[in-house]
Amino acid sequence: MFILIFLRKHLNEDEKRETRQLNENIESIIKSIEEISDEQRDIVKKFKIDMELFASERSLESCLQTLNQSMQLANIREQLVETYKQYCQLLEHELRKALDKKS
User: Fold this and answer.
1) CA distance 103 to 82
2) What is the C-alpha to C-alpha distance for residues 39 and 75, in angstroms, rounded to an integer?
3) How far is the C-alpha of 82 from the C-alpha of 10, rounded, in Å?
4) DSSP label at 10?
5) Torsion angle of the four alpha carbons 96, 98, 100, 103, in this order, in degrees rounded to the nearest 10
6) What pLDDT is recorded for position 97?
7) Tell me: the pLDDT tens digits for 35-81?
8) Class of residue 77 by CB neighbours under 10 A (exposed 0-12, middle 13-18, buried 19+)
9) Cα angle for residues 2, 30, 38 (degrees, 5° grid)
10) Burial of 86 (0-12, 13-18, 19+ CB in 10 A)
11) CA distances from 32 to 19, 35, 38, 45, 55 (A)
C-alpha cells in the first residue's frame, strides 16, 4: 500500500528518538488502515451477496441479514475514517514542525 517514513539528517539523540517514535506510529497506523481495508472488502463482498439474495427472495430473514451487513459496513468505514484522521493529524503535526524550523 503506502509507507511514509520520515528521514532526517543531522539529529541529536532526542530528535532520533522522536523520529523513531514517529515512524513506529506511522507504521502502526498504516497497518491498521490495511487491516480495516481488508475487513471492509470482505464485508462489501458479503453485502453484495446478501443484497442479491434479498432482491430475489424478499424474505424478512434476507432483509435482516442485508441490514446487518450494511450496519457492519458503516461501522468499519467509520473506523477507517478515524484511522485516516489520526494519520492526517500526525502528518500535519510534522509539517508544522518542519515549517516552524524553517522560519
Assistant:
1) 32
2) 11
3) 34
4) S
5) -140
6) 84
7) 999 999 999 999 999 999 999 999 999 999 999 999 999 999 999 99
8) middle
9) 90
10) middle
11) 20, 5, 10, 20, 34
Q: Name the amino acid, one letter, at 90.
A: L
Grid cell digits, residue 102: 524553517
Residue 47: partners with Cβ closer than 8 Å, 6 or more residues away: 66, 69, 70, 73
State the residue for C-alpha cell 528521514.
7
Residues counted in the chain: 103
C-alpha cell at 65: 441479514
- Placement of cell 477507517 in the chain: 80
Structural domains in the chain, CATH included, are 23-102 (1.20.58)
